[in-house]
Amino acid sequence: MDKDEVRQQLRSLVGTRKKVRLTRGFPSEPRHNGFVLAVGREWTLLQQFHDFSPEGYTVLRVQDITGVRSGEYERHWERMLAAEGLLDRISVPGDVPLDDIPEILKWLQRRCQNIIVECEDLEEDVEDFYIGQILSVDEEGVCFANFDGLGRWDKAPHAIPFGEITKVQFETPYVETFSRYLEGPCPQTGPCV
What is the DSSP letter of 174? Predict the structure, then answer.
């Protein structure tokens, strides 16, 4: 399935409240379930669901999507989600610019919230996982303040090149909950390393 076919399929699902399963070639997380909210030139916005729980928003590169399924299994899940009152929780978080990653990151920076940036590997179940705040966005990439699994901010910010970013998540239960238990506000300023 080529990128244009994938983009067309995704666009046909925007605004329909039809559940979808997207398949990607990354072994760390090959499938995403949810609702396609918007599609840009290079990226798509998905409101993810895990079983019967909304899991926030995920921005995925269109070029990485190898399969789009929205069939009888998804119709069955839609009936269950509707009966549980969960379809009413599907919402677009604003006018997310999805044509390129710099604009997406600038939009998220203006929201002043913690997010997740992932740089996944096609060959191995390995990824660079960053959780924290965007400090700045320039021509090369994003300067990112990361916190660790103990809720401590890293001593120096990280430079993440645009070309390595495969997925961005925001307003997820993981980010929102972790953010309430950090050791203070983000202390980082200065150049990225």
Answer: H
- The tokens describing 100, both together, are 């390129």
Q: What is the pLDDT of residues 3-28, one digit of tens each?
A: 899 999 999 999 999 999 999 999 88
Cα 184 to chain centroid, rounded: 25
Burial 37-53 (b: 16+ CB within 10 A, else e): bbbbebbbbbbbbeeee
Break the chain into its structural domains and give their ranges. 1-99, 100-193
* Residues paired with 145 in a beta bridge: 133
Overall size of the chain counted in residues: 193
Are 96 and 44 within 8 A, CB to CB? no
Q: What would the pLDDT profile of 68-87 be if each residue is shown by its tens digit?
A: 999 999 999 999 999 999 99
Domain covering 100-193, topology? SH3 type barrels. (2.30.30)
Fold of 1-99: SH3 type barrels. (2.30.30)
